[in-house]
Design brief:
The complex is a heterodimer of chains A (644) and B (75). With 644 residues, chain A is α/β, with parallel strands linked by helices. Helix content of chain A is 66%, strand content 7%. In chain B, strands 1-6-2-3-4-5 form a six-stranded antiparallel sheet. Classes of the chains: A alpha/beta (644), B alpha+beta (75). The structure holds guanosine-5'-triphosphate (GTP) and magnesium ion (MG). Chain B: InterPro entries: Fe-transptr_FeoA-like, FeoA_core_dom, Transcriptional_repressor_C.
């Protein structure tokens, strides 16, 4: 099967095109670093089967962040039959660097010039046949979101035959000479052309160094060549080569571009300025949090929808119906209790999942998709940069943290967009400790929203812990923090179809995640209940609960919280509806559960991304910190003597 | 010959062009080249606080002081 790989800079529309070509859906959002892992899709064009691969965006072949590394590794391992290089038309001068490098790598490249609509708006027009002639590769103009030109990509893929003449970029004579003598010395196979192998070695590419060091017998001689070349220049070779490439690219662009300076400062630019200047940006952020999260997710999703479904659907219809059938047709007491009992998977699993968690998660993902597609997040990132610097991270971490408010599992994956291991570890830890996921957040907002003071205390307390723990672990963890750089894409009007599709896919994914867990949880608890182990555990948790000044029944939500934090929160919801918690106790329990261990899915991703050892240390610290946090609050609250 | 200054000394809303980049760690240089900050490129300074927002070609990029100070420009 022919393999077609989509590569390119971040945020240029690769995933939109991938979705079109394969009929699948991978997330599309308006910020760099949406895709952090590889997706594969299969489809037939005129009866012939193709495999398409979507990759995380990369700025250059030599990776800065983890997800760029994923793409680079893929390119060298897959031996693609066609590489579709997707570029942003308006930034063609920056984008062609990768095209030229891909050609130098010996790949069969097809250039997809996307976002033609935005280029036009900026007054840039192209003579693409001309570009195609110069580069000797097919060039296709597209507007992916409107579906324009995408059919052409299919045609091109189908009729593509490699072996046309290629553009070859010649660097300065002494560089060319070094390339020549290094490539003569290389014997190993690295999934790229000899020329590119030499070029990457010259630029000190770490991935290739590690490989070549093993494989090449003549590696010391190669190194000697590299060092000799380096000694001619003051700057890193990567920079020297980029400058030389830019000269060649500018020459090409001068003959294929027509730039009519259109100086338009539309509504978009004004809005963009308002969101990124602190004076207006911070009030806008507060509005987003108040309306988007508090009103829409907390009040509407977790408050109104949950209550509505519960009181108008579950209590009067679904529950009696189930009860009727279960008690009528199932003779065995054990099966009855497995389904309908206190820990039965209907009472516990179904109700929590469908009536409490589903409405909250879907409202959150809907709201969040609008934010993502508008391009607000990168602006938030730059606004928050200086605050995140204080805890040893930088503005780039804003995006995983914001995602973490939706689902921590997704967020831990997205920490790949951070540069250093230290930052990724720190972000993973803080995500697991302090960031509640949407389901948990929604329930807590709804429960605490009766008392504004409680809600404020909860929010400030969690922020305080975020700050203190971040600061402390930031100074304990070895390694450097890195400087902040980020491309700020134009604000775009979110398309309803994409917003709904993305929200739905995420919700579904979330569901598939929790489905087996809720069944397992209720079975485990049911067994525990039947054998008496559960009573024993709850009994033995009594000292912990009473030290937090909580009633013994709170042990149950905490046990649920071990399986999933959001279940724990849903358990609290149950206790509040039966009026078995005072306002103070609710606040303490909410704080402790927010800080408590993340769900099993998130732990699995943590282990995958950070390793078992680090994950265990993190989990132990989280349990410790969660209880300490709760304990401290339970001691402070009586002293303050507040009327909640 | 116009005098050269680091971009962090320029005021908001000015137009400058990049003359050279300072010799710093490879990381900074790599990020700047990745974002298209190379000699000869025109830059409009849109914002300087809390981070630098620069308009290069047809996009905007945000940089913190640590990176931005390596860009040497002339008006
Ligand atoms: N106006 C316009 N917007 C587009 C076009 N193609 C893509 N977009 C938008 O560009 C943004 C980025 O699209 P994605 O497909 O997520 O980009 P990507 O290249 O996969 O990005 P990463 O996964 O971050 O590397 C989305 O907001 C799209 O709606 C286009 O042709 N015109
Ligand atoms: Mg993508």
């Amino acid at each position: 099967m022919a393999k077609v790989v989509l590569v390119g800079s971040p945020n240029v529309g690769k995933s939109v095109i991938f979705n079109y070509l394969t009929g699948k859906y991978v997330a599309v959002s308006n910020y760099p670093g949406t895709t952090v892992d590889i997706s594969r899709g299969y489809s037939k064009i005129n009866g012939k089967a193709y495999e398409f691969i979507d990759t995380p965006g990369m700025y250059s072949l030599i990776p800065i962040t983890e997800e760029e590394r994923v793409s680079r590794m893929l390119l060298c391992q897959e031996k693609p039959d066609i590489v579709l290089h997707v570029i942003d038309a308006k930034n063609i001068r920056r984008m062609l660097h990768l095209t030229l490098q891909l050609i130098d790598m010996g790949f069969p490249v097809v250039l997809v010039v996307n976002l033609i609509d935005e280029a036009k708006k900026n007054g840039i027009f192209f003579k693409l046949e001309c570009l195609s002639d110069i580069l000797g590769i097919p060039v296709i103009a597209t507007i992916a979101t409107k579906g324009l030109g995408l059919g052409k990509i299919k045609e091109e893929v189908q009729q593509y035959s490699p072996g046309k003449i290629r553009f070859s970029l010649l660097y300065s004579p002494n560089i060319e000479q070094a390339i020549h003598s290094i490539s003569a010395k290389i014997k190993g196979e690295y999934g790229l052309s000899r020329r590119m192998t030499a070029l990457l070695l010259i630029q000190g590419d770490k991935i290739l160094y590690a490989l070549a060091n093993h494989k090449e017998r003549a590696f010391p001689e190669v190194l000697a060549e590299v060092n000799k070349l380096n000694s001619y220049y003051q700057y890193d070779m990567e920079y020297i080569l980029a400058v030389e490439r830019q000269r060649a690219i500018d020459r090409i662009c001068d003959s294929v571009l027509e730039e009519r300076k259109i100086y338009s400062r539309g509504v978009g630019e004004t809005l963009s300025r308002l969101t990124r200047e602190p004076v207006t940006g911070i009030p806008i952020l507060c509005l987003v949090i108040f309306f988007g999260i508090y009103q829409f997710v907390g009040k509407f999703g977790a408050g109104f929808l949950v209550e509505y479904l519960d009181l108008n659907l579950f209590v009067p219809y679904i529950n009696p119906l189930m009860e009727y059938y279960v008690y009528q047709y199932i003779p065995w007491d054990w099966l009855q209790s497995l389904i309908m009992g206190k820990y039965g998977f209907f009472t516990l699993g179904f109700r929590y999942a469908f009536i409490i968690i589903l409405p909250i998660v879907s409202t959150f993902f809907f709201m969040f998709a609008i934010l993502e597609d508008s391009g607000y997040l990168p602006r938030l990132a730059m606004l928050m940069d200086f605050i995140f610097k204080k805890i040893g991270l930088n503005g780039r971490a804003v995006i995983p943290f914001a995602l973490g408010l939706g689902c921590g599992t997704m967020a831990v994956m997205v920490t790949r967009t951070l540069e250093t291991r230290r930052e990724r570890t720190l972000a993973t830890f803080l995500l697991s400790l302090t960031i509640p996921c949407s389901a948990q957040l929604g329930v807590i907002l709804a429960l605490l929203s009766d008392s504004f003071l409680s809600l404020t205390i909860w929010g400030c307390y969690i922020l305080l812990i975020f700050g203190i723990v971040g600061r402390l672990s930031g100074s304990l963890l070895p390694g450097n923090s890195s400087s902040f750089y980020m491309e700020i894409p134009p604000l775009r009007l979110p398309m309803l179809s994409n917003v709904l599709h993305k929200a739905f896919i995420r919700m579904w994914w979330y569901f598939i995640e929790i489905l087996p867990i809720f069944i397992i949880t209720s079975i485990v608890l049911w067994i525990g209940d039947r054998t008496g182990v559960l009573t024993y555990i709850i009994y033995s948790m009594q000292p912990v609960m009473s030290s937090l000044s909580l009633p013994i029944e709170t042990a149950q939500p905490f046990l649920l919280g071990f399986f999933r934090r959001d279940y724990g929160a849903a358990g609290l919801y149950e206790m509040v509806t039966s009026h078995s918690l005072s306002k103070e106790q609710l606040l303490i329990a909410s704080v402790t559960l927010t800080l408590f261990v993340p769900c099993i899915a998130q732990v699995a991703v943590m282990i995958k991304e950070r390793g078992v050892f680090i994950s265990i240390i993190m989990l132990c610290s989280i349990i410790f910190l969660a209880f300490m946090g709760g304990l401290l609050l339970s001691k402070i609250l009586p002293i303050l003597n507040l009327y909640l | 010959m116009a005098h050269l200054i680091p971009i962090v000394r320029c005021k908001k809303n000015t137009m400058v062009h990049v003359v050279r980049l300072l010799l710093t760690s490879g990381d900074h240089l790599r990020k700047l080249t990745a974002l298209g900050v190379l000699p000869g490129v025109k830059i409009e300074i849109l914002q300087t606080y809390p981070a630098y927002v620069l308009k290069i070609g047809y996009t905007q990029i945000a940089l913190d002081y640590e990176i931005a100070k390596n860009i040497i420009v002339a008006p």
